[in-house]
Every structure is written in structure tokens, then in C-alpha cells.
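Long-time lurker, first post. I've been practising inverse folding by hand and with some scripts of my own, and I keep getting stuck on stretches where the C-alpha cells seem ambiguous. Below is the full C-alpha cell string for one chain I'm working on. Before anyone asks, I'm not after the true native sequence, just a reasonable design that respects the backbone. If someone could post their per-position residues I'd love to compare against what I wrote down in my notebook.
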């Protein structure tokens, strides 16, 4: 059976690098093209949660232990009001033991580093902005802004929310991403002290006036935090006359500690406001030898902490299917990939969007009703439904992807 010879991956984010790592593991020649120009910019970003399902997928390409080694295992997910009242507390040890994979907090740059090492820096080409592609019966050719081209059997668009591959696939026309109505102010603060922020708990505070605040410890010295403000709340956040840190401190001055201490310990340049977007679930991820993965296919809001997790899942599934594809059946394999992932990611996108709308509530009366709803259901029904959505039995049944065999040899070689 003739297997695929070369894959072109557009985008060196989580989805693209995970796909590339899975393909390299199976011995498929892979080249990654990234529009950004410097390696340092690929490693920027704050922290985030990576849940059990992502580690189950990373295990299939032999990277779960490397990622875990640079992470902090979460044992509790705690929901609170802006008065400090506990609304629900999820114990994460039991599902960790049951599925055999943890939930962890980590720096985004730490995951990028592990994935980059697995792919190999020599396979990643920077400052390569895709302008279009053409395909024929024998392969696909990618065109770049500097006039260069690359040829492969398959082109994988993993270039994010505003994907150039997606735009080219749709002949240059597509509605813009859907704006959520809120902004996430993301940062990492240097704040030692277990008594201030204990290791192993992800805190998720819901407040009045369209404000939320998330935080957890990343290591003994650093705390990741995320202040989420609705557009209505953001109108009162003045970053013209004040620094971002001062504006955040004022916006959350009446919230319980340690939020004030976390903001006060944060460097101004570390605070990054990000407008949150997604796209309504839709098909059309494939075009012959071209396929979308990660945020290029199924971008979602941050409310389930599954954007990175679903990118990892889709990447590993795609790499596994491409490892069994031939040049002749490739378009059918790509369509089968979309079919296998579309419903699951659509559920994630829709559920995450709906949760986000709870944070847009402003009036005190409605916020009290929301808090009562969370107090009544989040520790039981919502937890059960979230885990049913997160953990798909197929993720635990799928085998580890085979390690590639060196050409002309009968022995295994180590994963790259």
C-alpha cells in the first residue's frame, strides 16, 4: 500500500504542532509553515487549563508525560461568587483516577515547547504567510507571500480563528467570527505563597456587573489569572488615563482577596486584553486534499477550557487517520475525519457559548438568581454533564499511534 509521502501544515500553534508531531511519529515527512517571523513570538501567551481528555490524546502520540512534567495537577475546580461565597466545588481526583489522566494548569509556552521539540525546529519554517493553494490529482501546492511554494500530498490548515487556509477554501469570502460580547484580560503574576493562592485549585469567580475572574497557581512562584469583562463593564475600564494594571485593580477593588494582591503583583506588560470570538458550528472543513483542524475548523470561547483540548483531540485523530491513508483515498479520509469530529466539537462550541452568556448578566437580582442556579446545579447536574461531554469513551479505547520505522530498517526509532 502506498502511504502519504509529505504533509504541509499551515500554522505552528497547538493544533498545527500536535498534528505535525503525530505525523512525524508515523514517519510521514512533514513541514510546518508559520506566518509569525520569530521563534520567541511562538512561545508567548499566558496559562490555561488542559483537561483529562487532552492528556488522553497526547498519550497516543507519546507526549502526555512531557507535558505533565511542566504542569501543575489540579485537584479542585471551585466556583464562587464575587462575595467569596462558594457555589460549587468539583473534586478532580476521582475522574483523574478513573480515566487515568490528570487535569493540569500550565503555561501556554510550555506546551508549545514540548510540541516544537517533538516536531523538530528544522521542520518549522517561520515568516511563511500563506496566500493560496492549488491542487490536482497528484498533490497540493501551497503559495506564500514571499513568492515561494511547497508541494505535498495533503495541506492542513491549522492557522487559527482567522485562517488563511479557510479563507482560500471559501474562495475569499466568509462571514467574520462571532463576537461574544466580552474581553478576557489575561496575565501571569509573580506571587509566591501557598497561603495566598494554594496549588491545585482552579478558582472561578462569577460577579455582578458583567465581570468574572479566574485564577490558579502555575508553580511555586507564578499565578495565572483571567479577568473577563462584558462590553458594558468594559466601558468603565479606563486604559487611556490609567495603566491596564491600575484599571483592573479599580474594576475589581470590591472583590475578595487574593484578587487585589494578584493584580497588584502583575507587571503592566504582562496583561493582555483579548476579545473573545468563536464561529457557529458548521461543516465544510475539507476541500479535496485540504483540511482544517483546531481553531481553523472549530474555534470556541474559553468557558469550557476546551479550545486547546479540542485542538489536540482533532489533531491526534487527524494524524492517526492520515497515517492509514493513501494518495488515492485521501479526500475520502479527510471527509471521514470531519464526520468523526464535527458533532463533538459542535457540542463544545455551543455549550461554551451558552455558559459565557451567564457572565453577561448585570443586574443584582439576576446575578443572585444565577448564583442560586449555580449553587443548586453546578456541583451535581452541571458537573455530570460537563464530564459526559468532556470524556468520550472512544478517547480511552483508541490505541497509541505507532512509532515510525526508519526507512530500510526493521527496528523502531524513537519519536521525534
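-- Answer (accepted) --
I ran through it position by position. Result:
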Amino acid at each position: 500500500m502506498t502511504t502519504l509521502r509529505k504533509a504541509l501544515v499551515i500554522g505552528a500553534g497547538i493544533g498545527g504542532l500536535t498534528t505535525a508531531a503525530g505525523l512525524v511519529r508515523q514517519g510521514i515527512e512533514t513541514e510546518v509553515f508559520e506566518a509569525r517571523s520569530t521563534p520567541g513570538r511562538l512561545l508567548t501567551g499566558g496559562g490555561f487549563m488542559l483537561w483529562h481528555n487532552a492528556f488522553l490524546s497526547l498519550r497516543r502520540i507519546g507526549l502526555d508525560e512531557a507535558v505533565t512534567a511542566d504542569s501543575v495537577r489540579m485537584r479542585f475546580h471551585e466556583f464562587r461568587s464575587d462575595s467569596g461565597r462558594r457555589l460549587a466545588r468539583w473534586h478532580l481526583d476521582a475522574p483523574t483516577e478513573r480515566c487515568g489522566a490528570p487535569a493540569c494548569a500550565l503555561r501556554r509556552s510550555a506546551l508549545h515547547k514540548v510540541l516544537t521539540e517533538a516536531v523538530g525546529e528544522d521542520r518549522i519554517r517561520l515568516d511563511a504567510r500563506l496566500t493560496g493553494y492549488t491542487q490536482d490529482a497528484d498533490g497540493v501546492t501551497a503559495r506564500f507571500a514571499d513568492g515561494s511554494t511547497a508541494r505535498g500530498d495533503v495541506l492542513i490548515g491549522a492557522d487559527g480563528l482567522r485562517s488563511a487556509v479557510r479563507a482560500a477554501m471559501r474562495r475569499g469570502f466568509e462571514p467574520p467570527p462571532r463576537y461574544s460580547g466580552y474581553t478576557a484580560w489575561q496575565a501571569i503574576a509573580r506571587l509566591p505563597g501557598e497561603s495566598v493562592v494554594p496549588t491545585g485549585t482552579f478558582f472561578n469567580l462569577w460577579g455582578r456587573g458583567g465581570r468574572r475572574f479566574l485564577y490558579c497557581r502555575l508553580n511555586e512562584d507564578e499565578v495565572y489569572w483571567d479577568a473577563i469583562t462584558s462590553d458594558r463593564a468594559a466601558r468603565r475600564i479606563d486604559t487611556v488615563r490609567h495603566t491596564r494594571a491600575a484599571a483592573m485593580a479599580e474594576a475589581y477593588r470590591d472583590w475578595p482577596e487574593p484578587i487585589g494582591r494578584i493584580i497588584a503583583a502583575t507587571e503592566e506588560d504582562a496583561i493582555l486584553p483579548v476579545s473573545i470570538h468563536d464561529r457557529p458550528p458548521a461543516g465544510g472543513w475539507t476541500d479535496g486534499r485540504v483540511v482544517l483542524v483546531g481553531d481553523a475548523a472549530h474555534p470556541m470561547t474559553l468557558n469550557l477550557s476546551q479550545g486547546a483540548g479540542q485542538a489536540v483531540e482533532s489533531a491526534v485523530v487527524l494524524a492517526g487517520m492520515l497515517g492509514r491513508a493513501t494518495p488515492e483515498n485521501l479526500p475520502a479520509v479527510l471527509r471521514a475525519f470531519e464526520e468523526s469530529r464535527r458533532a463533538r466539537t459542535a457540542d463544545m462550541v455551543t455549550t461554551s457559548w451558552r455558559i459565557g452568556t451567564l457572565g453577561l448578566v448585570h443586574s443584582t437580582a439576576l446575578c443572585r438568581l444565577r448564583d442560586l442556579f449555580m449553587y443548586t446545579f453546578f456541583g451535581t447536574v452541571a458537573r455530570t454533564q460537563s464530564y459526559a461531554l468532556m470524556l468520550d469513551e472512544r478517547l480511552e479505547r483508541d490505541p497509541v499511534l505507532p512509532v515510525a520505522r526508519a526507512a530500510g530498517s526493521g527496528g523502531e526509532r524513537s519519536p521525534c
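A couple of notes from the structure itself: The longest helix spans residues 330-358. The CA atoms of residues 245 and 268 lie 6 Å apart. Happy to go over any region you disagree with.
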